[in-house]
Design goal:
Elements lengths: L1 E6 L2 H18 L4 H4 L8 E7 L2 E12 L2 E9 L8 H15 L4 E7 L3 H6 L3 E9 L2 E9 L1
Parallel strand pairs: 4-5
Antiparallel strand pairs: 1-2, 2-3, 3-4, 5-7, 6-7
């Protein structure tokens, strides 16, 4: 069963980074200098674990005016297809609502658009490159 923790303590950030390293740096070839930024300390990190091992992660960063940005959403290949990322995103939305946010935005890799659309996110703006990977901005309001 998936358990989800959130916060911004150092140990949680390290568990989040362990998933991000495998997915973004290992699988997708993203430069570590791009992946690891100075925003981690100001974000709320979410880590989904199976038997105490991190398998999925994301971070939430308030960006002003009741809006938050979901970033660094990643799930280990061995854990994909089990609904873990969906559960993680729903937890992020719950925490965002409880924190007074009314909208979430995110930059989605084009291959992930259908996943976010199933969660009622809508695209806006033009396609753009982030770490040389095509993305679109998406948002969800309540």
């Amino acid at each position: 069963m998936l358990t989800i923790e959130h916060g911004n303590d150092t140990s949680l950030i390290e568990r989040a980074r362990s998933v991000r390293e495998v997915v973004f740096i290992g699988e997708q070839g993203i430069n570590p200098a791009l992946e690891y930024d100075d925003l981690d300390p100001v974000c709320i990190h979410f880590v989904g674990m199976i038997d105490g091992e991190p398998v999925t992660t994301a971070r939430l960063r308030p960006i002003g005016d009741g809006v938050g940005k979901v970033e660094r959403v990643a799930t280990l290949a061995s854990a994909r297809g089990n609904g873990y990322a969906k559960k993680l995103m729903l937890e992020i939305e719950d925490v965002a609502r409880e924190s007074g946010l009314h909208e979430l935005k995110l930059g989605a890799q084009l291959t992930a658009l259908p996943f976010y659309e199933r969660l009622d996110y809508t695209t806006f703006g033009d396609e753009f490159l982030d770490a040389d990977i095509p993305h679109r901005m998406m948002k969800k309001s309540w």
